[in-house]
Automatic annotation (TrEMBL):
Organism of provenance: Listeria fleischmannii FSL S10-1203
Single GO biological process annotation from the record: nucleotide-excision repair
Recorded GO MF terms: ATP binding; ATP hydrolysis activity; DNA binding
UniProt cross-references to Pfam families, sorted A to Z: MFD_D3, UvrB_inter
Name by which UniProt lists this protein: Transcription-repair coupling factor
InterPro entries tied to this protein: MFD_D3, P-loop_NTPase, UvrB, UvrB_inter
GO CC aspect terms: excinuclease repair complex
Keywords of the record: ATP-binding, Nucleotide-binding
Length: 483
């Protein structure tokens, strides 16, 4: 939908917003947009500025909806989602390889400093991450003809969060059988087989888990970590020291001798594992002790990035709720004698925003008080929600006649050329002329009804720009029958 993005880019107000971003003005407030129009707006800003863009939302559900809309606006190598749930229970459970894979790919994208959009809920921004230098160290590049030491590779893979098994079956596993090393990266559809001649890589190939047959031979490959909590053996003594100090401080504030004894026994179990270089199962509760200088997503991103905040007020509300829930969880866990006091579980969102000096664009439906937000420029983009036609072509025809009279660019979205052709015939049956813009870079014209290949979750009208975008949702959703 490059042509549609170009149509929006040509609007005077949009060009002014982009100029302000490129001039590095501190922040801007954009009011009026809602739903899928925000995804379109974000993609236009990213394309025009060529900046790595963080699109921050208040929760994962909303992040996923924006991501789904952006899928038809950006190439796959320019769009990423960082799926972080705001529930503490999700941090304590074992997340699926797919979700971990998405987060690892997102971090890799940020470090590339390439343009594109990362959609992230505020819970993801709060996550404590390893120092960037440590993450880069465990991006393993392997190539055919290189020498590798199998035992050293094994240690590296374990540090990277991979689990050793007799035979790889699921992402995040690896196996070593003589001169054959199999690794199943969490970012890949298929595992990779490394065949050695002594210590030299003789061949690299993808293979099928079920049949063990090779798929494709490759020259080189990069293995990314399978976890976001990277801990080298050198880190463990410092973690032990911090945990011992935290335990001593916690015990000083306890009066009940029985509780003191119970806490010491529980924490000592974890300390023994840590002294042996092993992460306890519930290591998340000690995440604030893991790194002397913990990083956030912003440390991984390009210094030339753009930050777009979708409904800043709701982001703030979620952040405050997360702070409260974390404090309550720590209090409850401490009452069960399972943790120590005052361990940091996440970054403070407001502190992160104050520290990062890059252009920020705040999106909100209405202009109202936005907390401590200070903006250098405010732009209101007039937006109307698209009406529901429910398959009633006569109603659509009346609306199109009105748009044509006012020289609108009318865009109907269809998921494929085949679907657009069928929809075009339906319009023709009701004497509505239309054209199909089959090429991605065809720019919609004013005074014309045209089909563009793509999809949004909802359509909308931009009256000042004289643009109407109709999705299949508005066209064909049936009316709910009254009971």
């Amino acid at each position: 939908m490059k042509g549609l993005k170009e149509l929006i880019y040509e609007q005077k107000e949009i060009r002014q917003i982009i100029r302000a971003i490129n001039d590095k003005k501190e922040s801007q407030l954009i009011t009026g947009l809602s739903g899928s129009s925000r995804a379109l707006f974000a993609s236009v800003l990213e394309g025009a500025t060529q900046k790595q863009t963080l699109l921050i939302t208040h929760n994962l559900y909303h992040a996923q909806k924006l991501y789904d809309d952006l899928l038809t606006l950006l190439d796959g190598d320019r769009l990423f989602l960082y799926p972080a749930d705001e529930l503490i229970s999700s941090e304590l459970s074992v997340s699926s390889p797919e979700l971990r894979g998405q987060r690892v790919e997102a971090l890799d994208f940020l470090l590339s400093e390439k343009p594109g959009i990362l959609v992230v809920p505020v819970a993801g921004l709060r996550k404590i991450l390893p120092p960037v230098s440590l993450w880069k160290k465990y991006n393993l590049q392997i190539a055919q003809g290189e020498e590798i030491e199998p035992e050293q590779l094994k240690l590296s893979l374990v540090t990277m969060g991979y689990t050793m098994s007799d035979m790889v079956n699921t992402p995040g596993e690896f196996s070593i059988r003589g001169g054959i090393i199999d690794v199943y990266p969490i970012t890949e559809e298929f595992p990779i087989r490394i065949e050695l001649f002594d210590t030299e890589i003789d061949s690299l190939r993808y293979f099928d888990v079920e049949t063990q047959r090779s798929h494709q031979q490759i020259e080189e490959f990069r293995i990314l970590p399978a976890t976001e909590i990277l801990l080298e053996q050198a880190y463990f003594p410092d973690i032990v020291t911090r945990l011992e100090k935290g335990l001593a401080d916690t015990l000083k504030n306890m009066k009940n001798e029985e509780d003191k004894q119970g806490l010491m026994e529980n924490i000592e179990t974890d300390l023994e594992l840590l002294r042996s270089g092993i992460k306890p199962d519930m290591f998340f509760k000690y995440i604030g002790l893991a790194y002397p200088d913990p990083a956030s997503l912003l440390d991984y991103a390009s210094q030339n990035m753009l930050i777009i905040l979708d409904e800043y007020g709701r982001i703030q509300e979620t952040d405050e709720r997360l702070e409260k829930e974390e404090a309550e969880w720590q209090t409850e866990t401490l009452s069960r004698l399972e943790t120590i006091r005052e361990v940091k579980l996440g970054h403070h969102f407001r502190e992160l925003m104050e520290a990062v000096q890059v252009p920020k664009v705040y999106l909100t439906l209405f202009q109202k008080a936005q907390g401590v937000m200070r903006v250098a420029q405010t732009t209101n983009l007039v937006y109307k929600q698209m009406q529901q036609f429910h398959g009633q072509m006569s109603v659509l025809k009346t609306e199109i006649e009105s748009w044509n009279k006012n020289n609108y660019a009318v865009v109907l979205l269809a998921p494929s050329v085949e679907r657009a052709t069928k929809m075009q015939q339906t319009l023709a049956d009701y004497d509505m002329e239309s054209v199909i813009l089959a090429r991605e870079d065809d720019v919609p014209k004013y005074g014309v009804v045209q089909f563009v290949i793509g999809s949004f979750q909802n359509g909308f009208e931009l009256p000042l720009a004289k643009v109407a975008i109709i999705s299949e949702t508005e066209l064909f959703n049936k009316k709910n029958e009254k009971k």
